[in-house]
Amino acid sequence: MSESATISDGMISVEREGDLCVLNWTDGRKEGFHSLWLRDNCQCADCLHPQTRERLFDLMTLDPNSDLIDHLETQNGSLFVTWSDGHQSQFSERWLHEHAYGEDARQARREKPTLWTSEVKNSLPEINYEKVMSGDEGLLSFLDMLCDYGFALIRQTPTRDLEVTRVASRISFLRETNFGREFDVISKPNPNNVAYTALELQSHSDLPNWEVPPGTQFLHCLEFDAEGGESTLVDGFAAARQLQSMSPEDFDLLCQLRIPFRFHDSDWDIRRSATTLALDSFEELEEIRFHSALTAPLDIPSDQVLPFYRAYRALTEIIRKPENILKLKLRPGDLLVFNNRRALHGRAAFDPNTGPRHLQGCYVDNDDVMSKRRVLRRRL
Ligand code: OGA
Ligand code: ZN
Ligand code: ZN
After folding, report:
1. Protein residue with its CA nearest to atom 1 in ligand 1
2. Is the Cβ–Cβ distance between 277 and 287 less than 8 Å?
């Protein structure tokens, strides 16, 4: 059966092409929707709970081999479908536009992060504490920078104990780990972590030994009089892309080969094997796990050991290139926030005899960060 109807609005007609219902828009665009997909996404109150907006419809009640559609038409900016069992559905033009899954539509919805090198120091994504804390616009600007650059700096944060928690709680719950809800980065006696010494920390991601490493890290500078101890940040996604263009096979190996990570002290033994790099379904970089101190002795097929070391060294060389490293000397009141699954962080060695250096940190999951950003966008 093939039907078409015209309306004055953007979506002018619909026709059937095999399994697809093809909608034509006035601008010449066509979007195909499978009949089964449309039935599964019926928006009526029997199929979609009107309050929770969760699906009530049971896909398994359909025979996917039968012709599902009895009648189709467009009218007043909506698509109306009468199904062969008599059920009726209505889809608004806007809803169809927002959920179209043709290649162009899917590409148009993608978010592409701004990759950076050390040059980013000339236009740092930074914002004042008052703005972030006092209104939703400020919080949203901060979240936009954080999502786009993978880091943002909050300036003039009061140097109060646990102020970092107040800021992080503007977004959501904290993500607690074996290092506690909050952690103090100071040089301590009997450290269980190199971060709690005065040694240099090469660029790394925190807690790659977890099934899901913490997403967003907050590091609040409370005191800093020591010599040395400058912070470093590297865009792990930019570094991975540089590797891909220099040596695609090394890049592919780091996307495919899981290597073991482990943290252990007297109370904990947390282990996870994971790939160094991870891509999403668009081949966009989604994650980097990189921490030489927490990489366990390689427990991988023997013929992968030397290829892995080669690829890992090539990536490390890129990560250590000065032109890829943003150097920042944090001042009391600076709160550095970054996506721990993208930006690698580190610090230069410092001399604890020249004065104190105290950072206080915590984590929030990236799901919470992204959710907050979507909700604020919708609201503002
Ligand atoms: C950490 C860390 C950086 C710093 O605590 O994980 O990397 O600047 N600290 O001390
Ligand atoms: Zn329905
Ligand atoms: Zn760290």
Report:
1. 195
2. yes
pLDDT grade for 353, boundaries at 50, 70 and 90: very high
List the domains of the chain with CATH numbers: 7-108 (3.30.2020.30), 118-379 (3.60.130.10)
The CA-to-CA distance between both ends of the chain, in Å, stands at 44
Q: What is the pLDDT of residues 298-350, one digit of tens each?
A: 999 999 999 999 999 999 999 999 999 999 999 999 999 999 999 999 999 99
Evaluate: CB of 233 within 6 angstroms of ligand 1.
Answer: no
The encoded tokens of residue 361 equal 């940190």
| Nearest by Cα to 64 from 38, 96, 46, 82 | 38
Q: How many CA atoms lie within 13 A of 264 on its CB side?
A: 7
36-87 per-position pLDDT tens digit: 999 999 999 999 999 999 999 999 999 988 999 999 999 999 999 999 999 9
User: What own/partner pairs with CB < 8 Å and gap ≥ 24 does 315-318 have?
Assistant: 315/239, 315/240, 315/243, 315/250, 315/254, 315/276, 315/290, 316/292, 318/239, 318/242, 318/243, 318/246
Atom of ligand 1 nearest to the CA of 361: 5
pTM above 0.90, yes or no: yes
Cα 132 to middle of ligand 1, angstroms: 23
For ligand 1, whether the C-beta of 206 sits within 6 Å is yes
With CA atoms as reference, report the closest residue to 226 among 356, 41, 36.
356
Tell me how far the alpha carbon of residue 224 lies from the centroid of ligand 3, in angstroms.
17
- Strands 126-128, 151-155: parallel, antiparallel or unpaired by DSSP? parallel
Residue 247 alpha carbon to ligand 3 centre in Å: 28
